[in-house]
């Protein structure tokens, strides 16, 4: 009987030891300890910069600007006129290599990518621009023949979605959805939010709306039957594109590395 009791105690102690070792291993490998090594932080900066750029490029190449109202020389792009599929989380994650990545690491990548997708979805939906120029629209007779807009930078317009692409808005979105709230995790998320926001602002300055073809509408009758050339009314513009820089992968990476070096919790 005593032998059986001693054996039972030994088995119980063995299970306790195994459980303790398991708990220690889980703690060491949990989300709060993912970024303990600088190499992992650098890898994260490379990963998030690359997947954001890849998804952004596919999204930007698919944007079509349609149904622009043209009055005289002014084209008016209203919310909803920037068409094409939005920049989604699956599109950003499409190029991510999950091999040898932990589930917590992937979840944090998804939190950052989700912040970008959420912000850009609102930005695209609400973007407007009243500074699109069609010089030919001032001097028309009868109707406006097909003509293209003068290229105009995206930052000449605005969107209520700009507020979702600020550092603080991006960081809040990431922090709420990422596993782990350690100093290292928060530092990595802050670096990503800062880098993405700054890269977004540069992108708006370096990417332009081009190729909108406007035509139609009603222009004045020519002299002597009418007043001669004048501004067109009710013309429409379609098939515009976003041409120029994509979001800058290298800028994102470098800004994140700079933040790691200066971050003080």
Structural summary, described in words:
α2 (38-61) packs parallel to α4. The protein has 7 helices and 11 strands. The chain is elongated. It has helices spanning 2-29, 38-61, 89-93, 103-126, 167-177, 183-206, 249-262, and strands at 64-65, 68-71, 74-77, 82-83, 129-133, 144-148, 152-153, 207-210, 213-216, 235-238, 241-244.
> Helical amount among residues, as a percent range?
40-55%
Radius of gyration: 27 Å
Per DSSP, the total helix count is 7
The N- to C-terminal Cα distance equals 59 Å
Structural class: alpha+beta
User: What order do the helices and strands follow?
Assistant: HHEEEEHHEEEHHEEEEH
- Widest sheet, order of strands: 5-3-2-10-9-6
Layout of SSEs?
Blueprint: H1 2-29, H2 38-61, E1 64-65, E2 68-71, E3 74-77, E4 82-83, H3 89-93, H4 103-126, E5 129-133, E6 144-148, E7 152-153, H5 167-177, H6 183-206, E8 207-210, E9 213-216, E10 235-238, E11 241-244, H7 249-262
Antiparallel strand pairs: 1-4, 2-3, 2-10, 3-5, 6-9, 7-8, 8-11, 9-10
Helix pairs in contact: 2-4, 2-7, 4-5, 5-6, 6-7
């Amino acid at each position: 009987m005593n032998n059986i009791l001693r054996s039972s105690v030994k088995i119980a102690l063995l299970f306790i030891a195994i459980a303790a070792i398991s708990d220690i291993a889980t703690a060491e490998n949990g989300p709060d300890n993912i970024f303990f090594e600088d190499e992992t932080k650098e890898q994260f900066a490379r990963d998030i910069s690359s997947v954001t750029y890849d998804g952004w490029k596919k999204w930007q190449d698919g944007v079509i600007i349609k149904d622009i109202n043209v009055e005289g020389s002014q084209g008016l792009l209203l919310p909803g006129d920037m068409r094409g599929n939005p920049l989604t989380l699956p599109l950003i994650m499409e190029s991510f290599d999950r091999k040898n990545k932990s589930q917590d690491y992937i979840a944090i990548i998804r939190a950052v990518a989700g912040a970008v997708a959420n912000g850009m979805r609102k930005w695209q939906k609400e973007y407007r621009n009243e500074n699109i120029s069609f010089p030919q629209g001032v001097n028309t007779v009868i109707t406006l023949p097909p003509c293209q807009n003068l290229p105009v930078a995206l930052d000449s317009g605005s969107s209520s979605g700009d507020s979702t692409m600020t550092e603080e808005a991006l960081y809040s979105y990431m922090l709420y959805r990422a596993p782990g709230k350690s100093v290292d995790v928060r530092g990595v998320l802050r670096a990503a939010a800062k880098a993405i926001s700054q890269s977004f602002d540069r992108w708006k300055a370096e990417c332009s709306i081009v190729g909108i073809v406007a035509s139609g509408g009603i222009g004045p009758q020519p002299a002597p039957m009418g007043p001669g050339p004048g501004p067109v009314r009710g013309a429409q513009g379609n098939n515009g594109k976003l041409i120029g820089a994509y979001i800058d992968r290298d800028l994102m990476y470098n800004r994140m590395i700079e933040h790691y070096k200066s971050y003080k919790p």
